Each structure stands twice: as C-alpha cells, then as structure tokens.
C-alpha cells in the first residue's frame, strides 16, 4: 500500500458519502487517475466533480492536479522508507524465474507486515485482549486460508489453558455459535470481510450477546459493523489466481500480537499451564528419542 492509499483509507470514515465514493474509486482504480479527466472519474465513480475536489482537499491537496503530482512522485519512488527496493506484486503466471518468485513473495510478505503495522491500534488490541482474558470461552472462526490463522490462534490459547473452540468444519463450528452468550468472546478472521459464513456467524453471535472481535482488511466491508472490536490488517495481495499469501501473513501478525498481549497481561495465571505444557512436550520428545535408539549390543 502506498502512502496516498493509506491516507485515503484513514480519512474514509470522516468524509461525506459523496467523497467516500471518490475515495473508494481512487483506492480500487489508482491507475485511472492519470488515464481519465475529472469529469470521467466523476461519472465512473458515481459521484460529482465537486466531490472529487473535496476529496482531494480532505487528502491535503488543493485539487486534482496536486493529487496527481503527489501520486506520480509516490509510485516512482525506487525504494521505500526502510531502504528495501519496491517490486511489483505479480500473479502466479507472470513470473519468469524461481528467483523472481522468491524475491516478490518475500517482498510482498514484508510489505504486508509494514502495512498492517502502520494500521495498528494499541488501544483496540488491549481491549480485545482483556475481553478474551475475562471470557468464559473463546470461539474462533475462519474459512479457507483465514481458517489456518484461526487454527494457529486456537492452539496458542489452548496451550495457555483457555476454554477455546475452533473447527475447520463450519457445520461443527455453527454448533458453537448457537450456544454463545454474553460471557463469551468470538474472534472472526476474514480478509475481505465479506465471507458469507463469517457474516452469518457474526449475526448469530451478536444475537446471543457475545463480544465479537474481527480481523479484517482496512477497507469498508460488511464485517466491520458487526464487530465490537476490529483489528485491521492489509496486504498487497493479488487475488485473481494466487490465493492468500501476504494477507495470511498480515493476519498472523495480528493474532501473534494478540496472543503475546494476552500472555503478558495474564502471565501469573497462565505461566503454570505453559510450564506444564513444556514439561509434557519435552518428556514426549525424550520418549520418542529413546524409542528410536537401537539397544546396546549384548556381549
């Protein structure tokens, strides 16, 4: 995500509806800023030329000309503020070598971490962690690649001794939904925030009074309004054919921060469980090692 896109997303909740239409079009079709005059942009985005001018001013520029200049300067930067060369985020059929695949995937994942870190809200993270610490149970939900993120958090919370539920089978997961109450907390993971199963889960959880924590992309979506707390992530994901790669990394960054925050704030209670878990795992590993060691020869 470039700095202008990040700025457009950050001001989105504060600007008028007509400006929001311009902001959404700008974020989704940045290349059109140079391809079309203001009148065409207004028509394509379903708003007015005046709304586009107001959007430019909300972004901190005098008008479209200044916004275009700033955007041109942004996309022509060779390196980012961390000194890492920017690479295009290609889809799977566009690579010419394995070396290029490794470089672009690595760059994409690092950019996802940087983008998500810029969006980080410590206060929201703190409230989400406290809600989990004081919950009777924690219900985790995710579909597809987001499900692997939910499963990882499930293992971490389970190891700390929390009453936590997760199932990759959404029919099983729905059995947890209908019993959720005000004493429970749910974490819903969805990059797009539009996954039908996740939105249904959010509705059922809110009906039962459970606290809902969402992990989703920093872009207007249906899940945000259904959550009590939202942990925002973002990534330069190419979605046509490559599937979730950098978006999963961004989600894992947030769940790892959430896990460490919980462990830090509830350490006195969970330290015994962590110590017991480590002891059991070490004993099991030692038992496996001994079973593989051939017996000493008999003289």
Order of helices and strands: HHHHHHHHEHEHEHEEHH
Cα gyration radius (Å): 23 Å
Largest sheet: 5 strands, parallel
- The order of strands across the largest sheet is 2-1-3-4-5
Helix content: 55-70%
Instruction: Label the overall shape.
Output: globular
User: Helical stretch count?
Assistant: 13
How large is the share of residues in beta strands? 5-15%
* Number of DSSP E strands: 5
End-to-end separation: 70 Å
- Uncertain regions: pLDDT < 50 for 5+ in a row? 78-90
Task: Characterise the protein shown here.
With 299 residues, the chain is α/β, with parallel strands linked by helices. Helices cover 57% and strands 9% of the residues. It has 13 helices and 5 strands. It has helices spanning 3-11, 17-28, 32-35, 38-45, 49-58, 64-75, 98-119, 122-133, 145-159, 170-177, 196-208, 246-265, 267-292; strands at 137-142, 164-165, 184-190, 211-217, 229-233. The protein has a 5-stranded parallel β-sheet, sandwiched between helices. Helix 9 (145-159) links the parallel strand 1 and strand 2 (164-165). The N and C termini lie far apart (70 Å). 32% of the residues are buried. The model is unreliable at 78-90 (pLDDT under 50).
